[in-house]
Amino acid sequence: MRRLSIFAVLALLLAGCSAPTKTQDSELRIIAAAAGAAEILNEIGLSDAVVGVDERNSKASKAQVVTSGHSFNFEQVVGLSPTHVIIDSLTDSTEVRNQFKQSGLQIIELPTAEDISEIYDKYEILGKAFAKSDEAQSASNALRAKFEEFKVSNRSFRIAFLYLRGTNAIYFVGGKGSGADSLIEAVGSVDVGAAQLKTPFSPLTAEVMRKLNPEVLLLMNNGFESVGGLAGLKSLPGLSATTAVKNGNIVLIDDRELLDFGPETINVLKQIQEQLKAFNAA
């Protein structure tokens, strides 16, 4: 009942918030709840219009965080009187998405990128949505130039991406299409999961890890901490026998950055490359 009542309040209070297509910058009140959205809005001159963000965008904006996980706090959303909400496939449930649309908010949906090449689509969509196409094209071109200038200076490592959430007993190995495979390839290494696992994520088993035997593990910070660090990794199926865990070859990237595929992805590549320099793989 409480959730339904919140939906009703949201619909009533936001019904009058629908903004015309040509809303002036000073009238915009945007909730950035899609990967990379706040960063791109900063680049096209709309940072001051961002009034709310999801947790993924919290590093790029000082606006209020209006989510827990991927679920919205509707009381906060209502209090911010937004004109637009930017979402992607990870934004809450279909029910929530429909409620936003029914409330009169303008909805902008960004693709959930799984490859570096798909980042530029986000610039195009946001540029068109906010009449900032020229600014978006300029920012997109500048980012493309950064990727083109990125130089691979490491030797090639055999890397496996693990998605771990120890508190919920979630343990997966990244495969083809996980997103991490694009990053690993970009730094000149080989994603051993993508080479042998045909789905984006597969359960972590001793058999799989023996088969892959990575030299390096790529992890998110929170996932690494949730299993108890390196000691905890040794207790998961098959990991203690891998070259990566034996040598302590772990690359850690912020959860809000690794798979967001936005302007900061170039810095993610630099972070991965810098950490790889410390390893002497067998």
Descriptors for this entry?
282 residues; alpha/beta; Rossmann fold; six-stranded mixed β-sheet; disordered N terminus
Helical content (DSSP H or I, runs of 4+): 25-40%
Question: Major sheet, described briefly?
Answer: 6 strands, mixed
CATH fold name of the largest domain, please?
Answer: Rossmann fold
User: Quaternary status of these chains?
Assistant: single chain
Note the run of SSEs as H and E: HEHEEEEHEHEHHEEHEHEHEHHHEH
Number of DSSP E strands: 13
**How many individual domains?**
2
CATH architecture label of the largest domain: 3-Layer(aba) Sandwich
How much beta, percentage-wise?
Answer: 15-25%
* Contiguous helical run count: 13
Look at the structure and give the CATH class of the largest domain. Answer: Alpha Beta
The average pLDDT value, as a whole number, equals 89
Q: From the alpha-carbon coordinates, what is the Rg to the nearest angstrom?
A: 20 Å
Low-pLDDT stretches are 1-21
CATH superfamily assignment of the largest domain? Nitrogenase molybdenum iron protein domain
Kindly report how far apart the N and C termini lie. 58 Å
Shape: globular
Coarse structural class: alpha/beta
